[in-house]
Amino acid sequence: MSAAARPARLRRPWLIAIAGLGVAAYLAAALIADAHALGSALQGLGYSGLGLVLGASLLNYALRFQRWARYLAALGHPVPRGEHRLIYIAGFAFTISPGKAGEALRSLYLRDRHQVPYADSMATLFVERLLDVLAIAVLASLIVLQDLRWWPLPVIALVVVAAVVVTLGRPALADGIDRIATRRSGRIATALAGLANLLRASKTLLLPSRLAGGLLIGLVAWGIEGLALYWICQSLAIAIALPAAVGVYGMAVLAGGLAFFMPGGLGGMEVAMPALLVAQGAPLATAVIAMLLCRLATLWFAVLLGLLAAAWLEARGRPQPEPQAG
Fold first, then answer.
1. pTM (2 decimals)?
2. 97 near 264, Cβ under 8 Å?
3. Distance (Å, rounded) from C-alpha 229 to C-alpha 167?
4. 326 exposed, middle or buried (CB, 10 Å; 0-12, 13-18, 19+)?
5. What does 147-177 look like in DSSP terms, one character per residue?
6. 3-state SS class at 258
7. Which of 66, 136, 135, 79 has the alpha carbon at shortest distance from 107?
8. Distance separating alpha carbons of residues 200 and 220, to the nearest angstrom
9. With contact defined as beta carbons under 8 Å apart, do 276 and 251 qualify?
10. In this predicted model, what pLDDT tens digit does every residue of 277-306 receive, in sequence order?
11. How many whole angstroms separate alpha carbon 311 and alpha carbon 190?
């Protein structure tokens, strides 16, 4: 084991434990503040409704994993599916980190256990996030059709994504960074070379065919989460059409994205979703409960699964290399 790998491997269990304590503290605070109303809402949702909502989240994760695995395989890294799923889900343990940067935990596992270069896994994470923003902006546009006041947010997101895609499509950018790296030494040169490799890998994943397929998966995956919000609203007697519910969910996620340095967009979505539901005619108290149920079934459910997957990976250790024939 290299000296660089040893400290990272020793720190991971502590990071996972700290994340678990943070989740427990947040959920405890939410339950104490809204225990009675949340309990009543869960009763109204029922076991079947709760199963549908959580099932929608699981389907979202499954679709996005398929896209992730295909992209990583396109870069030459077909990781075994069973453990790869665990590694992907483990990234959700740190979704509540600022800008969801903690999901890069996947890169640590993939490098440690399957020798996947950081540049390739980080490029996959970057492109996945980019396509998610694009898909969510498209879904958010559904609410703009009802209320034009909300048009700036999805338009800004679409323009930013388009600008990033066009910029990544210019090979001169990575070549220029490489030239700068050759004039440097030590860690700066290594970091610049890694950035150039990341940009090239991202460009590979943003070829038109892969871009279209990835966007389609994103639209379906996040649209399913909007469907879950619709089911939650129906259980709370909030009169809202399905397209509007999907649009509300997309717009709220974009608002959470604006709170980039807040853990998991905390604050932005909690304000935007109730405001959007109130604009649809829901009472404020009911809209807040709908938001809490949605967050529990999406964000916090994902974090819980991520903690369990990360703990499982730590407990089982590194996979044993397959014996070579002959």
1. 0.85
2. yes
3. 35
4. exposed
5. -GGGTHHHHHHHHHHHHHHHHHT-HHHHHHH
6. helix
7. 79
8. 27
9. yes
10. 999 999 998 998 899 899 889 888 998 899
11. 32
